[in-house]
């Protein structure tokens, strides 16, 4: 299974966390403080990658990137990382099925997963009596992330050659 | 788990599961720690951000700048309308300038009349916005002044015109400002012509709501909302915005500060209001050995 298409194995394992860090920093850019929610690029990246190469995403990548995001993006610490990790593992389990399905199905699944993640986080926050963001702003976040997902996939597939390991392998 | 034929062997799967379980326990523990000992974890977060974000400034700054330039370029499309609008505005401003000049003269006369001693001016540190929260969970902004510049928790931040928020979390070289629009922001305020007290409460929308009003029927759209300084959190008489009625029928504040395009903010040094302590002492002849009252300062 080594390097039939695209990058060598070791490089690919380093590449994902590196792009994740860059994406996290990109999300903190001072474009429009307090008004517009940027898309959750790290989530898009993790899901798109794990659906295409479930065996190449190291298990520590999701919690590590999630924690970094929690700290930098002022999210509740630990909760975002937990959500990202669970989502990644769920998609890792369904990767084979999603690879066989058309892209539209994968897209819908990714957006639904993000919605579940964000609203789940809100439920946990409400249950622990912490300040929870309004439903409207969470809906906006889901929408923006849904729009960003195909773009992230396009970038991965075209620029980096992260294609699905085909069934013929 | 639907694993394929080239997936790792069984013993590795066991290791995976153990690892996953460990991560889950650690992350849940972190979340609980954040919930229980919030101030300490937040301080840790600030320290980390302090170390991390300024070292990435050279990447984010040019991109943010380019994005702003594109937004400005788009404005060129409507240059004719803008020109007309600006001309109209200029005309209106000339009217105001006249009024301001007259007021200034009147003010100078009145000041000369009664030799008012003005409060020491609010002093401030100007800071550049480095990053914003980037998630719907907090409305906040990172600025590039910190403990080194003498900034302390709780100081107010304004842009040129109005209140932006307050400092919540100070690092060595950076600090975080919770915006007025954040859901956890509450500011004691006075509404200007009617003199009512109210709370300006953020709810993560662009216009915070007015709460705890005595008589909401005395409220008029366009009334000015200024901070009252109650509780000593914010300095008094900083402009917050104007009252208007939102689409949901609640009284809201249209902010004077442009929180949408924050580039620079002033972090205002909190000057605690003077406290009168005890009675002034008896008026009478000076006894030998008694401390001389500071009579000299009144003449200045």
Q: In percent, how much strand structure appears in the residues of chain A?
A: under 5%
pLDDT averaged over residues of chain B: 79
Task: Give the number of helices of chain B.
Answer: 4
Major sheet size, sense and barrel closure of chain A:
none
Radius of gyration of chain A: 16 Å
> Helix- and strand-based class of chain A?
mainly alpha
CATH class of chain A: Mainly Alpha
- CATH homologous superfamily label of the domain at 124-268 in chain B: Rod shape-determining protein MreC, domain 1
Q: Strand order across the biggest sheet of chain B?
A: 1-2-5-4-3-12
Q: Which geometry of chain A do the CA atoms define?
A: globular
Helix-strand topology string of chain B: HHHHEEEEEEEEEEEE
Q: Low-confidence spans of chain B: pLDDT under 50, at least 5 residues?
A: 1-5, 294-300
Largest sheet of chain B: 6 strands, antiparallel, barrel
Supply the number of helical segments of chain A: 7
- CATH architecture classification of the domain at 124-268 in chain B: Beta Barrel
Distance between the termini of chain B: 83 Å
Shape of chain B: globular
Task: Give an account of the 3D structure.
- Chain A has 169 residues and is mostly helical.
- Chain A has one domain: Arp2/3 complex 21 kDa subunit ARPC3, CATH 1.10.1760.
- Chain A has 7 helices and no strands.
- In chain A, helix 1 (9-27) packs antiparallel against helix 2 (41-52).
- Chain A is globular.
- In chain B, helix 1 (10-36) crosses helix 2 (38-52).
- Chain B is of the alpha+beta class.
- In chain B, a hairpin with a 4-residue loop joins strand 4 (163-170) and strand 5 (175-179).
- Mean pLDDT of chain B is 79; it is low at 1-5 and 294-300.
- Among the domains of chain B are: 10-53; 124-268, Beta Barrel (Thrombin, subunit H).
- Chains A and B meet through helix 1, helix 3, helix 4, helix 5 and helix 7 of A and helix 1, helix 2, helix 3, strand 1 and strand 2 of B.
């Amino acid at each position: 299974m080594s390097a039939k298409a695209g990058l060598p194995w070791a490089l690919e394992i380093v590449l994902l966390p590196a792009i994740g860090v860059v994406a996290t920093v990109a999300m903190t850019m001072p474009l429009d403080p307090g008004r517009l929610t940027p898309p959750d690029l790290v989530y898009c990246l993790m899901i798109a990658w794990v659906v295409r190469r479930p065996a190449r995403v190291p298990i520590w990548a999701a919690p590590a990137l999630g924690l970094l995001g929690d700290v930098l993006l002022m999210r509740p610490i630990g909760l975002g990382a937990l959500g990202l990790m669970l989502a990644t593992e769920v998609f890792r389990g369904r990767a084979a099925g999603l690879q066989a399905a058309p892209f539209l199905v994968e897209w819908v699944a990714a957006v639904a997963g993000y919605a579940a993640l964000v609203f789940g986080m809100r439920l946990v926050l409400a249950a622990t009596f912490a300040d929870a963001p309004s439903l409207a702003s969470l809906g906006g976040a889901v929408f923006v992330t849904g729009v960003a997902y195909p773009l992230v996939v396009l970038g991965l597939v075209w620029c980096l050659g992260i294609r699905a390991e085909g069934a013929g392998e | 788990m639907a694993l394929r034929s080239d997936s790792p062997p069984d013993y590795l799967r066991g290791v995976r599961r153990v690892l996953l379980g460990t991560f889950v326990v650690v992350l849940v523990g972190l979340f609980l720690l954040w919930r229980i000992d919030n101030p300490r974890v937040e301080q840790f977060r600030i320290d980390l951000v302090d170390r991390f974000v300024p070292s990435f400034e050279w990447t984010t700054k040019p991109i943010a700048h380019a994005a702003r330039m594109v937004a400005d370029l788009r404005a060129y499309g409507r240059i004719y309308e803008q020109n007309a609008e600006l001309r109209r505005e200029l005309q209106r401003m000339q009217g105001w300038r006249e009024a301001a000049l007259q007021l200034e003269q009147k003010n100078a006369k009145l000041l000369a009349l009664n030799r008012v001693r003005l409060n020491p001016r609010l002093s401030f540190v100007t800071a550049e916005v480095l990053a914003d929260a980037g998630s719907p969970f907090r409305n906040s902004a990172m600025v590039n002044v910190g403990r080194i510049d003498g900034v302390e928790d709780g100081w107010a931040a304004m842009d040129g015109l109005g209140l932006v928020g307050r400092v919540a979390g100070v690092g060595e070289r950076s600090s975080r400002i919770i915006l007025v629009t954040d859901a956890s922001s509450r500011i004691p305020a006075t509404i200007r012509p009617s003199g009512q007290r109210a709370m300006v409460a953020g709810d993560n929308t662009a216009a915070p709501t007015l709460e705890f009003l005595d008589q909401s029927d005395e409220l008029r759209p366009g009334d000015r909302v200024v901070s009252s300084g109650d509780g000593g959190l914010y300095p008094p008489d900083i402009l917050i915005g104007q009252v208007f009625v939102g689409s949901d029928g609640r009284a809201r504040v249209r902010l004077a500060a442009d929180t949408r395009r924050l580039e620079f903010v002033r972090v205002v040094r909190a000057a605690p209001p003077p406290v009168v302590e005890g009675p002034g002492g008896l008026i009478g002849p000076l006894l030998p050995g008694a401390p001389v009252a500071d009579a000299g300062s009144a003449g200045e």
